[in-house]
Amino acid sequence: MDSDRNQLQELQLLVRELTSRVYRIERAMGIESVPAAPQPQSPPPPAPSIPVPQPLPETQPMPRIPTQPVLTAPAEAVANLESRIGSHWLNRIGIAAVLIGVSYFLKFAFDNNWIGPAGRVTIGLLAGITVVIWSERFRSRGYKIFSYSLKAVGVGVLYLSLWAAFQVYSLIPNGAASMAMLAVTSATAVLALTQDAEILAAFALAGGFITPVLLSTGQNKELQLFSYLVLLDFATLVLVALKPWRRLLLLSYVGTVLLYVGWYSSFYDRSQLRLTLGFATLFFAIFAIAPLIALPAKNERSLFSILSLLLALVNAGVYFLQVEAMYEQIDKRVTAWLALALAVVYIFLSRQVRVRYRDPAAAQALHSLHLALAIGFITIAIPIRMDAHWITIGWFVEAAVLLWVADRIHSDFLNAFAVGALVLAVVRLLFIDNFYSTRLIFNARMATHAVAIAVLAILAWYGSKRNDERGRTSVALAIVALNALALIALSREVADYYAQQMAGMRPMPGQWNQSGWLNLRRVEISRDFTYSALWMGYGAMLMLIGFWRRSAFVRWQALLLIAVTIVKVFVYDVSQLDRGYRIVSFIVLGVLLLAISFVYQRDWLQLGKRRSAEGESA
């Protein structure tokens, strides 16, 4: 019995000690323990008469675990920044420092003739190969970043040694140096593929693009240089098709553009137009299809989407500007046809994106950018290919086509571009186009305004098919713009007509002709009266349409125009017009206002019943 009692006490002490340990561990880890729900206590049983046991020897308390503060988000960010600086940036700076130090040492040794040319190149090649092989020892032990850094040093030494062998000491011919550097580039690319290391692929690509610079002789070798760049760009496509190394595309594009611009600024002339244009087109095609070949990895979709959008945008802009620069002094119409061709290309690519991409978000972004580029090139082609008001008409037609396509495929994206093209056309029509015609109504200006009014009517029609707020807003804006353009067009016709009448009536400077001045004043009075008559007539027409269509929106436009006409008649016409025109203006305006008032008083639209019904419902 005593042994059972002792064992029970030992178990209680053990449980108490374990509970204390768990509590201390939770405090050290910053975890709050959930207190156990209180349980109803049963009355204690009567204590048996057992002799009191001897107290157990005191157990040694467990050592207290020191509590450590839990890392907060800023502390973790600082630690990550510190780790990245120590493991990456210091490593890269160390690579540069080693290369610079080796270069200074070799220069010092060369200046003092310690080593001959062949020996210097041999030492450099052996040192580069040794460092590359030695780096594998660190990679096998898990130090991958340090191993790749050593490989960068070794590859850099190999390139410098081959450059010295060709450029400095002329120990090997250009062809041998090119093949040797190509072998270094290929070996680095193979290492990148076998070790699944994107950084090594970047080293190989950088070495490949620096090779033409190291082996340059200052001579024009366009065919050799651009053929080499085409092969290098195709090799990049192969790499990004095999591995998810999408950032190599941007590196390859930057290298291609830099070498192309360097050659173009030094050697290009018009006699090389066809060959240069062919290579420029080939470079453009490679990087235009690159996003379709290099599909994103699962963990880099956001980065890949940004790189793909940036590459597509810059590639299109650089290629178009380059071709425009080559044809600027030859034939500008070529660039217009090029812009249309690029629009077709990007429409095709936008369709291919939907087929190739599995990620809907990335596909939608690139699809939208390709469509935007296509629309942009069409918009650019119109002013290049056309002149004067035909540019405005072209933009209006483009807006109509975009509205039709947007309605067919239900694309708000294309609707936005259609509205943009429409705004450009309206601004050009009102503020840039300068029309001159001796024919009234049937002239280029009225034809352009007619096209604008038709496109705005199409916009209003498509907007009326939508049952949302955006559709109603587009209908309202289109109708207001339509009426404003129609009134402006008719007013300009009135101004042109009377300008032709007054052309021969203005006296010469320094001469006074009373009869000529009276005739001129008579024509001006007739013009001002015609403006009032036109605005009253247009307002009456809008009011009739508003009553017929039962459209309060149209009626309010009519009321606003009539209000402007009232102000003109009572303020301007009273003081400027002759008595006859003044009488006619007031009578016509009065009759129009009375007729409109009569219609409202008869309540043909039953507006009073609507108001009473609304009041009862309220």
Give a quick set of tags describing it:
single chain; 618 residues; mainly alpha; 4 domains; 20 helices; disordered C terminus
Summarize the structure.
By secondary structure, the protein is mainly α. Helix content is 79%, strand content 0%. The protein has helices at residues 2-29, 73-111, 117-140, 144-168, 174-195, 198-214, 222-242, 247-267, 273-293, 301-327, 333-356, 360-385, 389-409, 412-431, 444-464, 469-502, 514-549, 552-576, 579-602, 607-617.
Counted by DSSP, the helix tally is 20
| Structural class label | mainly alpha
How many beta-strand segments? Answer: 0
Percent of residues in helices: over 70%
Q: Catalogue the unreliable spans.
A: 36-42, 47-63, 65-73, 613-618
Number of domains: 4
Largest sheet: number of strands, sense, barrel closure:
none
What are the secondary-structure elements, in order, as H or E?
HHHHHHHHHHHHHHHHHHHH
| Fraction in beta strands | under 5%
What is the multimeric organization of the chains shown?
A: single chain
Kindly report the average pLDDT value: 80
The Rg value, from CA coordinates, equals 42 Å
Overall, the morphology is elongated
- How far is it from the N-terminal to the C-terminal residue, by CA? 91 Å
